[in-house]
C-alpha cells in the first residue's frame, strides 16, 4: 500500500470492525513505536496492536466506526474516530453491561515502507468507562 493512502481507515474498517486480524501483519511493523499509554497487560510492538484489537473486538463485537475528519500528508495519516457498539464482553476486567456506547479516539500514524512504524493517539476512556458503569458520571 502506498504511503498516506488510507492505512488508518483500512485498519479500523477491515481489522477492528471486519475482524481480519491477519492484516495486522500486513499493516504494522514488528517494532512499531506506540506513543500511547498501554492497556493493562498490553505488550509492546505489533503484539500490542493485536492485544488492543482483541480486547476491543471481544468487549464490543458489534463495533462500528466513523472516521472524520481523516487526512494524509506524505507518510503521515491522522483521523478522529468515533466508535459505537454494545458492551457484550469483558473490557479491562469490567463484565459485560449490555449498554450501548459511543467513544472516540484521535490517531496519528507514521508509515514506513507501507506499514505503520509509529502511532500517537488519545482515547476518551473516561467517557467509555462512565457509559459502561465502571466510573461515576
Keywords:
28% helix, 4 helices, five-stranded mixed sheet
List the helices and strands and how they pair.
Layout: H1 7-17, H2 23-27, E1 28-35, H3 45-59, E2 64-73, E3 76-86, E4 100-112, E5 115-123, H4 125-131
Parallel strand pairs: 1-5
Antiparallel strand pairs: 2-3, 3-4, 4-5
Count of helical stretches? 4
- Shape descriptor reads globular
Helix content: 25-40%
The poorly predicted ranges are none
User: What structural class should be given to the helix and strand makeup?
Assistant: alpha+beta
Order of helices and strands: HHEHEEEEH
Largest sheet: 5 strands, mixed
- Report Rg: 15 Å
Strands ordered across the widest β-sheet:
1-5-4-3-2
Number of strand elements: 5
Mean pLDDT rating = 94
Distance between the termini: 42 Å
- Beta-strand percentage range: 35-45%
Please describe what this structure looks like:
This protein has a five-stranded mixed sheet with strand order 1-5-4-3-2. The radius of gyration is 15 Å and the shape is globular. β2 (64-73) and β3 (76-86) form a beta hairpin. With 137 residues, the chain is α+β, with helices and mostly antiparallel strands. It has helices spanning 7-17, 23-27, 45-59, 125-131; strands at residues 28-35, 64-73, 76-86, 100-112, 115-123. 28% of the residues lie in helices and 37% in strands.
Amino acid at each position: 500500500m502506498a504511503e498516506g493512502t488510507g492505512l488508518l481507515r483500512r485498519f479500523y474498517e477491515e481489522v477492528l470492525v471486519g475482524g481480519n486480524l491477519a492484516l495486522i501483519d500486513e499493516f504494522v511493523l514488528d517494532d512499531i513505536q506506540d506513543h500511547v499509554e498501554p492497556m493493562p497487560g498490553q505488550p509492546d510492538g505489533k503484539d500490542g496492536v493485536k492485544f488492543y484489537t482483541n480486547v476491543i473486538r471481544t468487549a464490543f463485537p458489534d463495533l462500528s466506526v466513523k472516521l472524520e475528519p481523516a487526512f494524509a500528508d506524505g507518510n503521515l495519516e491522522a483521523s478522529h474516530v468515533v466508535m459505537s457498539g454494545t458492551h457484550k464482553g469483558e473490557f479491562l476486567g469490567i463484565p459485560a453491561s449490555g449498554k450501548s456506547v459511543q467513544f472516540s479516539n484521535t490517531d496519528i500514524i507514521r508509515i514506513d515502507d507501507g506499514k505503520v512504524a509509529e502511532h500517537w493517539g488519545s482515547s476518551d476512556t473516561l467517557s467509555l468507562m462512565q457509559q459502561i458503569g465502571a466510573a461515576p458520571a
